[in-house]
Amino acid sequence: MNAGFYRAFEDRYRGSRELITQRLEAYLPFLQPLKTLYTDCPVFDIGCGRGEWLELMKREGFTPMGVDLDEGMLEACQAAGLPAQKGDALQALRALPDDSQVVVSGFHIAEHVPFSVLGELVSEALRVLRPAGLLILETPNAENVMVGTNNFYLDPTHDQPIPNLLMSFLTEHTGFVRSKVVRLQEAAALHDEQARVGVREVLSGASPDYAVVAQKQAGAEQLEHFEEVFEASYGLSLDDIALRYDQGIEGRLGKLESSVEEVRATFFEPAEFQRLMAEVSQQQTQQLLAMKEHYEATTEALHRQCGAMQEALSQVQAQAEAMTQERNAALENCHWQHMRAQGAEQQIEAMRASTSWRLTGPLRVTGRVVLWPSRHGKAWLRVKLRHAAPHARLWVARRPAVRRLAQAVLNRSPWLTAKLRNLLAPDPTSVAVDHQHGVIDHAPLTPRGRAIENALRAAMKKG
Fold first, then answer.
1. Could you read off the pLDDT of 167-188 as tens digits, one per residue?
2. Which pLDDT tens digit goes with each residue over 233-273?
3. Digit-coded pLDDT (tens) for 148-172
4. Going edge to edge, which strands form the sheet with 63-68?
5. How far is CA 404 from CA 388, 396, 397, 399, 419, in A?
6. Alpha carbon distance 183, 208 (integer Å)
7. What residues have CB less than 8 Å from 25, skipping those under 6 apart?
8. C-alpha angle 139/7/49, rounded to 5°?
9. Which residues are paired to 258 by β-bridges?
């Protein structure tokens, strides 16, 4: 659970500090006699939360100390300057000395721990309490139907609801001399015996919370101070609300029956009443017959619709089967084509791996070279040769032996010489003209060399 989540959850659903403090004041009648028995009144609160109980105890003259594991809750206590520390409730109780506290309290802590841990908490509380000291354990009341079935599970940290009879028995079995179930926070309007109780009140009217206030054994003169608060009744149980609901229903039914009898005695003679009842019976019979005919007609129409739907379903199933067959056939055809393609690939790979393919490789290369000019055209070949000619002339000019051999070949073949001159004639667009001297430059420069030369000439003109 994210840090601060539980504090934000409590702030939204538990109520404001003022509201909680007001509710906690219900326990003050139990605590006031302790001031007459002890001069110091230390109170230990387990799961102190935001610290409303600690604040109330300080206001009433007690000396409280709280313990909690939630950092967000402890921040609220620290902000209010309340004495609280981080720690496990059971370990903190075990660390306290015997007979050191007048009150051990735990508000909405019992439902968060397993029952075995709750038993240890009650046992440790009995040990640390002084004679006549009080253990207060408050928890949601499962008697309230809305709480027991819904609101209890709103808190994700809750373990399980604890019935008040079980909680009370636990304290008495542990060794407390007596315990009192204090039901809390019911609507004030329900305390009015004349208030109407409906189903909503039965479901949610019982006290939403209760507490078991258990007292440690002490002398009779000490326990006598608490007789009045332990003998009083607190809150509303589900039985109380349900009984008042039944009584209200019975009262209203009795009034209704009396009214019917008065109307019958006032307006109808026995014979007239029987005649009216017979008419009513006849009308009801006719209505039932009409309803029966309507039901039979509706049933027949539904049967016809079901038959049509079954027929349409059969057609759809037949179409689906036909489409399935077509799909299977298409898949088989695809598989066959795939197998053919794989076979062709294997044949091509076998051919490329064969000795005849490797031996005819040079012949294929020679054919591509021979056919290459014809595929691109004479004009394209002429352009390429013109681009290559300056490089070839430079290469031949640097090699006298090659130049002599080429000159000898050209001297013996005037036709070849003419063809080469025509083919290697410079492009008019690339011929450089010296406009100052009127001289055409046929120097064997490459296009890049020609560009460099033109750049140099432009620089010289600027200078």
1. 999 999 999 999 999 999 898 8
2. 999 999 988 998 898 888 888 888 877 777 766 665 667 76
3. 888 888 878 888 899 999 999 999 9
4. 84-86, 63-68, 42-46, 101-107, 129-140, 209-215, 178-184
5. 20, 9, 10, 9, 19
6. 8
7. 56
8. 50
9. none
